[in-house]
Every structure is written in C-alpha cells, then in structure tokens.
Amino acid sequence: MSNLARNQRRNPFTLGQVAQSVGDYFTSIKRYDEAREEYQEAIMAYNLVLQSSSQFALAQTQKGIIQKFLDDFSPLAFVNDLSQWLQKNFTKATEAGWQMLEEIFAKPIPAFMATVAIKRAKRIDLGTDYTVVLVVELNEIENQDIKVIMRLYPFGEQTNLPDNLKFTVIPKSGEPHEYLAKSHHPAFETEWFYKRGEQFRVKMQLNDVTVTEDFVI
Amino acid sequence: MNPEQNGSLTNGHLALQYFTNRHKFTRQFVEYLNNEPPPTEILFFHGDGGNGKSLLLKFLRKNCCKRIVPAVWQQLKTKSDDEFTATIEKDELQNYSAVPAAILDFGQAPIEKDKPQDRFYGLLMLRRNLAIVASALGCKLKFPRYDFACVWYLHQKGKSLAEINRLFPPEEMELIGVLVDALEHSVLANVVRAILNTLTKYFGEAVILVWKKWGIDEQWLTQLKAMELETELMNTLPHWFAQDLNATMKDDDVLKRIVLFFDTHEAFWGHEHNLPAERFFYRDEWLRRLLGDLDLTTGIVVVVAGREKPRWAEPPKFPILLEKVDTQLVWHLSNADAIVYLQKANIADADLRQALLKYASVKPNEVHPFFLSLCADVVLAAKRRGITLNAVDFATIPEINVKSLELTHRLLRYVDEEIQDAIHALSACRTFDRELYFTLGDALRFNATKATFRILTRFSFVWQSEHKNRYRIHNLLRRLYNDSDNSTVNEAHTVLEKYCHENGDVAEAIYHAICHDWQRGTDEWIKKHNEAQQREDFELCRILQEIREETLLHLGK
C-alpha cells in the first residue's frame, strides 16, 4: 500500500540507507547474491544524491564502503568447496544451485553414463535468451590429485552452444586459459588437474553477459 | 440465505452461497482427491485479481474435500460437470470421508504469531492449521523432526516456554515442555545426551524407539546442533516439514489424501514485481523448497492460487519443473453464468440483470466476477433503503480501471455518513478487529457501535481474515483512499501509530509513521532495521522488510 508516502518527496539518500541495511541483513544470513542486488540498489540511490545536498559527502562515503565490500567479499563468498563434494556432502552445493544431472537433463548424457565419478550440474543464465548447463565431474587419482572435468551443454530447446560463447579457466595464481565454444557443437569439455587446497575461477561469457563460478578443492 | 436481508454477496461466507460456474475446476480438484494413483502435479489457479480465485479455493475447501467410496466415485465420474458439482456441493453424496485441508493465505497481513509469508512463522502457521483440521477429523499428524528443529531454533533465540507453546498445537504442549526443560538444564556439550535422557525419563524407551524410526536419534540431534541457525537450519526446515508429512502419509493406512491450499501467491512480491532475479526468487524460495520435497505420490494434494503463472522453473536455486505444475487459468464468467449468479442473488428484473451484466463485462461474454457482485451489492443496498434501481441507473459505464471506485461510491451512497467515515479510517489499517474499530471511533469522533461494526463487516470490500475476528478492507479500496490525501485516513494513521506503540507493535507503528510522515517513518525504519540486524533479531528484520514492500521503500517507485 503506497499511501500518503507517494505524495511526499522521497529522499534518495534515505532509500540508499534502506537498501544498504537490507544488504547487511542478507550478508548476515549469507545470502550474498541477494545482498549484492541490495547494495547495487543502494549505490544507485546514492548516485542520485545531488552534489548540492548536505548528504552528498555522506552518500559518497557510503558508496565507497559498499563498493569495497562488494570487491572484497565477491571472490570468496561464492566459492564452491569441492572438498565437500568429495565427502559426498552436497548441502552447500545444493544451496548454490548445483543439482544432480538427472534433475536437469531430460535424457542421460552419454559422456557421464559410464562413470561413477562425483558430478553435479548447474544452470547458468547468460542473459535472457540463453541458458547453458555447467557440469563439473571430480575424479580422485593418485598422489591426492583431483581431476576436474568441466563440460558445458546447451539447456532447454537449444541443441548447440552459441558460436561466441567464451569459457575461461583462471587459476588462483597463473595465466587464464580462454576457450571459444566450437560453432554448432552440442557441448564443450575441458579437463584440469588440481591439488587439494587449490583455487580456481571459471568465467562464462556470452556477448556482454559474464557469469563466474569460484572453486576450491 | 437471503442477500436482501443479510448484506453483501462477496463477503466471505455469504459469497459461497452464490458461487457460480467453476464446474470444470471443481471436477478437476475432486479428481485429484479420488483418482488412483494420486496425480503428482501441483494444481495452480491463476488469473486477474477479483476473478474469484480465493472464493474458488474457499469453495473447494468447504465443499469438495471429499474422498468418495470407489464404487460411488466411478458413477459420479460419468456425470456432466454441472451435475457433478451439484452432487458434490449439496451433500447429496453418500459414502465419503472428509479430507483434511489446511490453508495458508499469503495475502493475510501479519497478526501476532500468524505471519504467512515469513519463512519461519509461515511454515509454523501451516503446521498449526494442519493440526487443527486433522484433529477435527480425528487424525493426528506428526511432525517430529520439524517440531524438534523449531523448538531448538526458538530456544536458541531466547524464546520462553510460554512463547514457544503458543506457536504449536496444544496437543504438543507436553512434548515441548519436556524438550525445553532438557535444553534448559543441560550444558551445551552434553545437550544431545541430555535431550535423549530427559525424553527417555518422561516417555520411556518405547517412545524413543518410535522417534528413532522417525529419524530422531543421536546422530540427527548432533547434526541439528551443529547447524547455523539462520542459514542451514532455517533452510532445512521446509525439508523436514515435507519429510515428516511424507512419512505420515506413507505410514497412515486410513489417511489417503491431505490438501494444502496456498492463496494469494503474488503477495510475496507486494507491489514490487520488477525485482532483480535473486531477490525476486528469494521471496518464495521456502515455499519452493517445501513443495519440491513433498512426495505427492503419497496423496498430498497441493493447490495454489495466484495472479500470475508461477515462475518456478526459472530460479537456479530450488526450481520446480514446469511439468510438475498443472496451471489452470481462472477466467471471467460467461454471460450465462453471470445471469445465473444474479438470479441466485434475487435480482428479479430481467432488464436490470442485463444492464448489470453489461456494466460488469470486460469483453464480450466475459463478466468480471468482482464487478458483478459489487453491482448486485449496490442494487440490494439501495433496496434496503427503499430505493428501487432500474436498468437505466447502470446505463453509463465507466472505464474498467475506475469501475470498482465508482461502484463503491454508489454503494456508500446508501449507507450513513458515520459508516463512510469509519470506512475511510479503517482503510488506514492493514487489518482490524472490533477493539481497533472502537479506538478509531473514539479518537476520530465517529459513532462506533456494535451495530455499525456488524453492518460494516458485511460489505463486499471487507474481507474476514482466516484469523478469528480480524478483517481487512479490500486492497483496491485501501489504495484509493490512501492515495487521495483523505484527512480522515491521515488522522487515522496518526492515531494508529500511537496505538501500535502503546501495544508494543514497533513494526506496525513504523508502517503508520511512514504513511503519514515519510521521512520520519523511514528514518525510524532504518534505525530499527539496523539495530535488529546487529543484535541478530532477524524475525524483526523480516517483518520490517515486509513493511518496506508495502510502503514501496525502493528506488524509483
């Protein structure tokens, strides 16, 4: 109910404080995606505070605090802990949207049929028109190394990956490896070897939409 | 029941007497209760506001929750839709057993412990509602893991035994007392052992074995104890609720069906439907978690009503596949059904009926049920004042978006000025009862009596809440009066802010403050939300966030 509030002047600085406060709440309950959206709304509101306003300086300070927080917590907050997967503990993974393959794919995927490896899949929205599925498969091999196979599949009615889809694997220390999905290919696959404790990031990019997933073994 | 003597046609219970059409939906619902094996889709009714979805749910709940003896069911299935509904509705039916059915209406404003949208209290409300309907039919539903986890959570949050007991059905009081006692008299390290020892002492080994069968053992309790309250435990509650209900249905040889109704699904988003994805999908995430974990093959029937089709297949977290949802569009009434409705409402003049039908139409052969019932209300209200309205009185038809207002104004012409003032004042309330009505009458100097309250609560735009003795003015009307800078509404918000403060309802007081003094109210909101967040009073945070949606504390709104 909008009430009389609609007829009164709504101060953007105050609306920024509201969004920032709710962002803090979401951070407290570890709902980082929702927190990020609230903080972005707060920044937009603070941007509307006029330079002539007595609240301008305070708005700039709050923006700085939020921006630093977003930069700081972003890479670590969303990390997928694959060591938990290896212990068959998928509680956090499920929270983060990882599902069993049969929950996502209508038909079994041949590449996974013969394997008993640990694997989970997640839908990745690359804009409003295109969704892919990222499948991560883990195999424990000798010397405590872990083989990580990552595959991308089209989702829904799409049969092929889009031509200009970029897939980049970025180790915590080291050079990024960028791949371009092959034209009219139904899937993309890359295989990596990691030691326990190592971190890496995966970046999927289609046109101007980028989605990242962070992992630790 | 004669509407000429008893008031409104659309008012909750009365409206059911004139329930028209929807035969197809009635049949479909009854099939969900009687076909074998049980259908495994969620039945979702969607359609425009005022289309009668809530009334449909009420009708199904009151008249159609029947499990029919197979032989009779086979015969009934062969009947036409009209005959089918008539048989089900009119108690002509023999040889059936009543099916327990509970409802959670997300549109109901939070009242005390009843907060239907809240991810913790909403689920608890459903649990209480289920216990009430089941016990009325002589069944006892068990939610051992869910109850244990809730008691653990509430105790950890510092709630007293009395506060905890109020949240649970009375039959669980003994168990909860024992559990809280065990929690209070144990040191943290030994809490699991202490709980088991105390439960054994009170209830004996046999009961402990039963609980083990339900999955409550040392390992489970240890897992519960290790969970973070506001994240892991809170997120797992719908899962345990579903698992407990699934287990009950599997174990119970007699209970073949149970129905969970959810009304006003769109209320999760208030007036804010353009939220970014994460926040949009977060709102009803607990409901998706619950529905996704219910095993519908056991005979659990889920019926949801909402304005829009659910976007449940879209969220990356806890999606519900499209093929799992049986969406049904609840559309407007046909001309023929509208005429039947008006005949049932004792409007004998055929020309007048045609005029009302035309007035309430939104397209050819599509009559808006809420407009139609308001039209009928106007005619009957005038009749009670000795005025006979004719077809010419409805010859001028306004634009669709002002029809409700125009009809309400007409309706108010036939009531006293005192009652008009009362309606304006009450439209400032999110919900009200008789005490609040008298308080407003005293403060705003209108004549509030038991008799006027009775008249008032019979209007079509005054809806009785599921919560006993609570009412609310239709949102459409509230918005109209609240936006019109009406001095009575303004004064009412001031009175209500003070009243809520005196009664310790901080959040509701802030709501009224925002309504009549945006800057002061919003500053108060920020202060209280920050304080609540810092002392981890997330319950208050969630209540304040609902108020944020209601008062549109968003950028660009």
Q: Can you put this structure into words, describing what you see?
A:
Chain A is built from seven helices and nine strands, in the order H-H-H-E-H-H-H-H-E-E-E-E-E-E-E-E. Chain A is of the alpha+beta class. The radius of gyration of chain A is 21 Å and the shape is elongated. By secondary structure, chain B is an alpha/beta fold. Chain B has 28 helices and eleven strands. In chain B, the strands form four sheets. A five-stranded parallel sheet of chain B has the order 4-5-6-1-7. In chain B, strands 2-3 form a two-stranded antiparallel sheet. In chain B, strand 8 (361-363) and strand 9 (366-367) form a beta hairpin. At the A-B interface, helix 1, helix 2 and strand 2 of A face helix 14, helix 15, helix 24, helix 25 and helix 26 of B.
Briefly characterize the structure.
The complex is a heterodimer of chains A (217) and B (557). With 217 residues, chain A is of the alpha+beta class.
Q: How many extended strands of chain A?
A: 9
Percent strand of chain A equals 25-35%
Helicity level of chain A, as a percent range?
A: 25-40%
Helices and strands of chain A, in order, run as HHHEHHHHEEEEEEEE
CATH topology of the domain at 22-139 and 252-329 in chain B: Rossmann fold
Q: Profile the largest sheet of chain A.
A: 5 strands, mixed
Low-confidence stretches of chain A: 2-7
Task: Give the C-alpha Rg of chain A.
Answer: 21 Å
Quaternary organization: heterodimer
Q: Which CATH first-tier class of the largest domain in chain A would you pick? A: Mainly Beta
Most extensive contact: A-B, 44 and 53 residues
Unreliably modeled segments of chain B? 1-14
Characteristics:
heterodimer; A: alpha+beta; Immunoglobulin-like; 5-stranded mixed sheet; 4-stranded antiparallel sheet; disordered N terminus; B: 557 residues; alpha/beta; Rossmann fold; 5-stranded parallel sheet; 11 strands; globular
